[in-house]
Design goal:
single chain; CBS-domain; Tetracycline Repressor, domain 2; 3 domains; 4-stranded mixed β-sheet
């Protein structure tokens, strides 16, 4: 019973989390519906007032508009910036622009940071640089840099001119790092102590200095050159003998990251080693900041969203459902063109075997199954290899082992499900030769799908291409084309 208790508690905790998330999502949906209703009511009442040609119409119009703006503003003022961003992303452009003007000025910068890139661009493109600077100034330097990263150069310089000297220097420092690097995402506010100091002196210094940075659970221990030497947990600082030195109480050999490392590697390390915070060092191995789990979670979420879009040929520009249709259509043309080409190739295969299909109509009903099974099985191989490529390099030895393993998996699944499909075919059409042909075609196509599913993302990655986007296209083209060719070719050889 004791051993089972933690599992029950864990399951109960997950259930509570799911209930809270569901309730929160329901509240957001309700809030969005309320705001849309307020906006619709305002539009209706304004239309009625405009048709009412009476003295004092301008005053009535102003009162109605002010009443609705106040109601919407009060509703939005109770939201977290992330929730306001969710509501803005759900509104049509006209309603979104109106709701944006009603967001409290002190919250606008934080709201912009929570919106998608497409919606953020739509909100700020019509704002004067001075207004952008006003909403950016209250933010920390790293958030200002994140906000300015995608703005036009002229607007960015105007905003930077509005900052004081120290803030501008820090923002310029962040902007100097490539997007997606540790330096661009790190927090420059951290607490460090010398390794040879006593715990008593550290406690005294902490009481006298400014408040500790948020999410500080441990102090960075450095030597005289500001190089990381260890970590000192606040709990151990409070519980240990004050006469001890920091070196005696610290945890040695901390994991740290360089400013030029990509954030995807940091995310993998945080997940692997269960980190909450880690020091960031420059080229001289001196601590210049810290990476917190908040930044890592943002990186993981952004990477997941980008990959889910890229898998179907979309980009961040397609995240705004209310953006103009023409640019979105133009961006999707290459994806549609590639799929049209692969479909045309498959149709040519079918046309080449038109004679045997006419003689044996069952082939037309069965051949899509062969192609579909190959495509689904290959996507699993693509997912595994792509995940390995995004989390780290794929050596030649690892590639060979992965290829051999996936071929074995494809052969096993092909033999099992090819046999199952062959038996079903035998029951439906009572033709043993046809059952053997389709079983063999499934086996061969699943093996081929495994080879392509491993090789395509690896080759695209080696060529500097996006394996997430290109692999699916190559796999679909291959499994469709070869699935039809294998099945119909075997049928032509053994059934005629």
């Amino acid at each position: 019973m004791v051993a089972g208790a933690p599992c029950h508690g864990s399951a109960r905790a997950r259930e509570v989390v799911l209930l809270v998330e569901h309730s929160h999502h329901r509240n957001l949906e309700s809030a969005r519906a309320d705001i849309i209703q307020l906006l619709s009511r305002q539009a209706l009442e304004m239309a009625v007032v405009h048709r009412w040609q009476q003295p004092g119409q301008d005053l009535v119009t102003e009162l109605v508009e002010r009443q609705h703006r106040t109601a919407i503003g009060q509703r939005l003022s109770k939201f977290h910036p992330a929730d306001i961003a969710f509501v803005l992303e759900s509104l049509e452009p006209t309603a979104r622009d109106l709701a944006w003007t009603l967001v409290r000025p002190e919250s606008r910068g934080a709201v912009l940071l929570e919106t998608s890139d497409a919606v953020r661009h739509a909100l700020v493109q019509n704002m004067p640089p001075g207004s952008i600077a006003e909403l950016a100034v209250p933010l920390p330097p790293e958030d200002i840099a994140a906000l300015l990263a995608d703005l036009p150069e002229a607007t960015r310089l105007t905003v930077l001119d509005k900052l004081d000297g120290s803030d501008r220097a820090q923002v310029d420092s962040v902007l100097a790092f490539p997007k997606g690097s540790v330096g661009a995402a790190m927090d420059r506010d951290f607490a460090a102590v010398q390794e040879h100091a006593s715990l008593a002196s550290v406690l005294l210094a902490l009481r006298e200095q400014k408040p500790l940075p948020e999410h500080t659970t441990q102090l960075f221990v450095v030597d005289g050159q500001q190089r990381p030497r260890g970590l000192l947990a606040l709990a151990k600082l409070l519980q240990s003998d004050p006469a001890l030195s920091v070196h005696d109480a610290m945890t040695e050999a901390p994991l740290f990251f360089h400013t030029d490392e990509p954030m995807r590697e940091v995310a993998n390390a945080f997940e692997k080693y269960d980190l909450v915070v880690a020091p960031v060092v420059n080229l001289h191995d001196q601590i210049v900041g810290r990476i917190t789990v908040d930044a890592v979670v943002d990186e993981i979420n952004e990477r997941a969203q980008n990959e889910s879009l890229r898998q179907v040929g979309l980009s961040k520009d397609d995240e705004d459902l209310f953006a103009p249709a023409r640019p979105a259509a133009l961006r999707r043309w290459p994806w549609i063109a590639v799929n049209l080409g692969t479909a045309f190739m498959a149709s040519r295969v079918i046309n080449a075997f038109g004679g045997i299909i006419a003689q044996l109509v069952a082939l037309a009903a069965l051949m899509p199954i062969v192609a579909s099974l190959g495509g689904n099985a290959g996507q699993q191989s693509v997912a595994l290899i792509t995940q390995r490529l995004t989390s780290g390099s794929l050596t030649a030895g690892e590639f060979r082992r992965a290829l051999l393993r996936e071929v074995k998996v494809g052969a096993i699944n092909g033999a099992v499900w090819g046999t199952v499909l062959g038996l079903v075919t035998l029951l439906l059409y009572a033709q043993f030769a046809l059952a053997v042909v389709i079983a063999a075609a499934v086996l061969l196509n699943l093996i081929l799908a495994a080879v392509v599913g491993v090789a395509a993302p690896a080759l695209l990655h080696a060529a500097g291409r996006d394996p997430v986007l290109g692999s699916s296209v190559i796999l679909t083209a291959t499994t469709d084309f070869m699935g039809y060719l294998l099945f119909l070719g075997l049928a032509a050889a053994f059934l005629t």
